[in-house]
Structures are given as C-alpha cells and as structure tokens.
Amino acid sequence: MKFLSAVILIVLAIIVSHSLEKTIKIIGEKRQVARDRVFYIQKTLQLFVFITVILGLALVFGVSYSQFGFVVSSVFAVVGIALFAQWSILSNVTASIIIFFFFPYRVGDRISIVEDKEKLEGEIIEITLFHLLIRKTDNSILSYPNSMVFQKPITIEPKARKRRLEEPHDK
C-alpha cells in the first residue's frame, strides 16, 4: 500500500509539474516574456513541487506526524535564520514570480520610477529573477530590485502604453 501511494504521489507530481511548465510557457508566450525568464519561473515552481513530493513521501513511508513536525520545524528554523540574513534574495525571487503573472510592464516599455529625491526614467531591457535592468536616458544601465517594484510608484509613458495596447493579443 505504501509503495502504491508513493507511485501515485510521484505520478501526480510529474503531471502537476508538467502542467505548470506548459501553463507558464503559454502565459510567457502570450505576454511576450523572454524565454530565460519563463525558464526561471518554471524551475522555481518545480522546486516547490519537488519539496512537496519529498515531504509527502516522508509521510507515506511512515514518518510520524510528531517526527515530521520536528524535522519540518527544524528545517524551517535553519532556513529562516539563513534567509533572514539574505531576506532580499528571497523577496526578489518571490517578487519575480508575482511580476511574471501580474506586472503590467514589459521589456521594451519606457517607465518612470518615483524615488525620494529624483525620478528614474528609462526603458526596461530585461526582467530577471532578481532585478529589472533599465536603460536610463543617459544610456547607463540601472539594476532595480524586483522587490522595490511593489514599493515605489511606477508609470509607463503614454506612447509606449498605446503601442502595447494596440498590438494584437492573439499571437
């Protein structure tokens, strides 16, 4: 029975992982997202599926809930301490996933970011797992952390928005 449950769990995980991969690819193509970025998002979500399968297999093969709880809480404590020192990495990766699904701006759009003392203007040339790369008006490249995208007001130039809105959606 344990073996059958394990096989079912693994098959289910493969199906979910494959479905996630296809769905993310379709969304990426529809929103004209760079292939590298689609790849990052796919692999990040597949890692979560893999970790879930490992935890599920541990439960299937008889790890008691108290032992399971102890191991999980210990792992979270160690990971939490490690990530506390590097919280910005985790927040940027999480923000990258949110940006992939909900960010209204795309590579090629001209944007303005309102900072405390200045206004950063430029064209988005790349959206990576950790940051946006923006070519400023003086041709310098700005690396802007993904997590900051949700903390600062960002506007898109009307000409760029009109161009994007006029493009056909069914590509």
Structure description:
The protein is built from six helices and five strands. It has helices spanning 2-30, 35-60, 65-85, 87-102, 146-149, 158-166, and strands spanning 110-114, 119-127, 131-136, 141-145, 154-156. The mean pLDDT is 81. It has a five-stranded antiparallel sheet with strand order 4-3-2-1-5. It folds into two domains: 2-85, no CATH class; 104-166, Roll (SH3 type barrels). It is elongated, with a radius of gyration of 21 Å. A hairpin with a 4-residue loop joins strand 1 and strand 2 (119-127). The chain is an alpha+beta fold. The protein starts with a helix and ends in a 5-residue tail after the last helix.
How are the secondary structure elements laid out?
Layout: H1 2-30, H2 35-60, H3 65-85, H4 87-102, E1 110-114, E2 119-127, E3 131-136, E4 141-145, H5 146-149, E5 154-156, H6 158-166
Antiparallel strand pairs: 1-2, 1-5, 2-3, 3-4
Helix pairs in contact: 1-2
